[in-house]
Amino acid sequence: MTAKAFLAALLIAFATMKPASAENLIVSVSNHRITVTPNYSGEELVLFGSIERGGKSLPEGTSYDIVVTVSGPRGDVVTRRKERKLGVWVNVDSREFIQVPGYLGIFANRPIDNIASPDTQRRQQVGLASFSLPQRMGPDIANVVASDPFRSAFVRLRTEHGLYREQTSAVTFLTPTLFRTGIPLPAEVPIGTYDIDIKLFANGAFVARTDTAFDIVKVGFEQFVANAARYHGFLYGLATALMAIMTGWLASVIFRRD
Amino acid sequence: MQLFLPIADIPVNVFLILAMGAAVGFVSGMFGVGGGFLMTPLLIFIGISPAVAVASVSSHMAASSFSGALSYWRKRAIDPALAMVLLCGGVLGTALGVWVFALLRSVGQLDLIIALSYVILLTAVGTLMFMEGLRAMLRARRGGTVITRRPRAQSWILGLPLKMRFKRSKIYLSVIPIIAIGLLIGFLGAIMGIGGSFLLIPIMIYILRVPTSTVIGTAMILTLVTMVIATFLHAVTNHLVDAVLALVLMIGGVIGAQFGARAGQRIRGEHLRLLLGLLILSVGIRFAVELVIQPQELYSIRELGGGG
Fold first, then answer.
1. Is residue B210 scored above 90 in pLDDT?
2. Residue A242: which domain range?
């Protein structure tokens, strides 16, 4: 293949892959920086989006589907299972999940199974069941099926705390091309950067995607204490020990009986 | 009023924690013990993770033992030499305890070990105290005289080398058993979140034959120093000390202790021991039940490392 032919082929491939005037997604969140104060008891962020149609778009009147995936800061998490040993319930087995999000919200306009085939769901990683939650398997790291007991227990526990959720009626279409969704953020949300991934489907096929992000920052005395404990353990330990001694001394002064 | 605990990572009612601190303070003032063996379990029972409970209670224990120690110091009821020797073992034991604590936590068995230690220690000590109190009470009822003589230390302990004279306690003893006892109490204290005086005082009285005039004050010095070190080391190595929780507990605790001490003076010694034995025993049984019945949730998750 000559260089010219290769270039032409590349250009054609590029053109068919990304048609210049197909659907385009434009989104915006109500707040790019959420401040969590000590009396924060959960909040809902709102995401608005519009589907821009171009000349090469799907025919007028096509009904679109939207899947929004919000993933919070990632970290390693160990999941343990108790078993009865000698009459006592003991942690026996455990699995380590590698770099999984601390918050995972999946929002769609209708059940994911109606939006795309299982194969497409897997390929596009849409839906809680298809989201990649890799585990350490000996020396390797691999994703496991959604029915894996450790994976489902992990997802269940996170769901109970409101940190993982799949809401398939959260996205509402205001007009056929204008949509919105609420992103509930419970009081326990971890601080950090959250990525929002928006995928557009039509007739069961993936059409377009875009992404945006927001930050969660905590302020206030509690956060100051938490940061001090985590990053300045030495000073924090000294301060706590001193506080204990001061309190004890104060008590003996106030309640002195002899 | 809700308060968010920054390290325990859960919201709690301030008045509940204050009341718990006061209740435990009352009990500790009444019986002359630190009350860590009650405080740590109570915190675990309201949903604070055992690791955070143990680490935070150690600072609470430091506060209450410091105010106690000051008052015993003024009454000259502390044997400084004996306290120093105990501390040699205690400091080492605490460091060892914090290290084992971190090790157990990383392999996921910390909660189990904390629960098991409570079951074993509390049921054993509780039963012994209860029986002893019961016997003393029956003896008193039968009209027999309560033996008040102070026998000398156990013979095998007298045979040990490295003897030292402890002037204020008027005893002449080898330092080996004293250091060993300090080591044990420091170790248990760091792992279980207890000051250990409910163990240390009987050991000092029955094995070392330390007179009752100096035993409580001297034990308190050991509690104070080991708990200050435990607080510091838990904060440095495990990042688990919740200062907000500890402060609320301390405030409740010191207030409760004042009323407890007054109530304690009105109750007879053997009744006091009987009650304390019963209390310790019931906490131990509560832990045992927790271990044996099937938990509602078999799985637990924990984030590793420094988070995001």
1. no
2. 220-258
